[in-house]
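Hi L., both proteins are below.
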Amino acid sequence: MDRMTAEIVSYYAERYDEAGRLDRRPQARLERIRTLELLEELLPPAPAAILDVGGGPGAYARPLAAAGYRVRLVDVVPAHVEQARAGDPPVDAVVGDARDLPEPDGGYDATLLLGPLYHLLDRQERVRALREAVRVTRPGGRVLAAAISRFAGPLDMATKAELTDRVLDEAAKLITSGENDPSIGFTHAYFHRVPELVSECREAGLAEVTVHGVEGPLWTAAEAAAGGPDADAIFEGALKLARLYSAEPELIPMSAHLLVAGSAPQSRSSLVDDL
């Protein structure tokens, strides 16, 4: 295990409760609702075989399994694998790295990467993870991957009234570098622009690439309104606009998370030719 991977494992095992994340804040609730809706829209019907790479404690693997999908989860954090196995319904889960999956070629109808890309700082490592997802997906099958928008961190800090001069300085650097400063919040992570996310997917061999904004452009308003008298109405409005503007190009990067979908090549030879 390399140093950066060890740091990510330590972060989730010792410092951050990923299992409760999607229930804590309006942004996270929007993320969960819209991700589940997009999975329903974009995945093949059950009982398709789904590989959930970087699936954490099973936030999406579990409802997919309950809906009749045949799901296997792979995560680099052993504690997440234990949580996924222990839930109801239990998830078939193993420890593994998105860059070197312990799975055979073409064994799944669809593969999810709903976390690994933003923990890989180097472009070639992200492309490597995407290529692994393509490898384990049957020809023509779906690959869905999540990324964090380049602008999510500073927008989030602003909603919490934490947009200090230091944060603004880091936000200016982030525009160019894409690399999050863990001393301000979160951990080491890479935040994408939409065109480079599409480029990485195409370099990995994916076809028919499309991108959705997950939380929509009003997630910051829902965050700022939390606990106030209009919180529920603003949340519902944000959710409706997230659905309406999901694929609107000009508004996609205003979401905190991006969801990219593509198709694995129809033949293994076409993938090999691209490498």
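That was the first. Here is the second:
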Amino acid sequence: MPLNVFAHRPLVIAALHLPDYALSRGRSMAWYEDYAVANARVFAEAGVPWLKLQDQTRTDGSATTDTLAMTTAIARLIKAEVPQIGLGIIVEAHDPAAAISVAHAAQADFVRLKVFVGGAMTAQGPRYGLGAAAIAHRAAIGAEGVAILADVHDRTAVPLSGESQPFAAEWAVKTGADGLVITGSSFPDTLARIAAVREAGVGRPLLIGGGVTAANVGEALGAGDGVVVSSALMRRDAGEDDVVRWDGDLCRRFMDAARG
């Protein structure tokens, strides 16, 4: 099992969202590069150990060629310009080969995959478990060093079947996930879901995928093994054309609370 991402404590992953490529045709590649590197530096200088580069280009099928080319180029640039921060990849498309291929090409440490097992109704329509395809593709391209963080009952979708959270978590483990992302409809719901999965004896690291702030990160890390955070760290005054969207002071205060 890939272990790099799970070895760091506190395990904090900051999500750096890329503007939707399809809706941002007026932006140059240089703008994307400046945006990604500037915000990666904000996280790194605040002591955040991991960054998740998040493509947000919506599609009802596989990832577009733009997503593959641009996300790989941006990820490699972050690795070169901000080498002190660990890197992960997520793509909006329901396409495990895309995320794993980008991570492998960019020498990233992990991917986050949603609807890993079972089925879910999403904003783009029904999606079905991609776990088996992800594991097969990772092996086929020799990317076994890329850890897979799999969402279990992602809060942005509605499960298409009635299995419990612990049962779905066991599915994900048996399919090959290296870590599980658990996120409820509210922070108390998240804690309850984590507790249920723990009680079932699921043997994988558990991360909280949203709703974490500086005020509750201590409790979150007490319940789970790590957290993913983004909106709680963003500048409140940032405009759509601002290159720097995340707030260095908020990031530092969050990391101080996580360490405490």
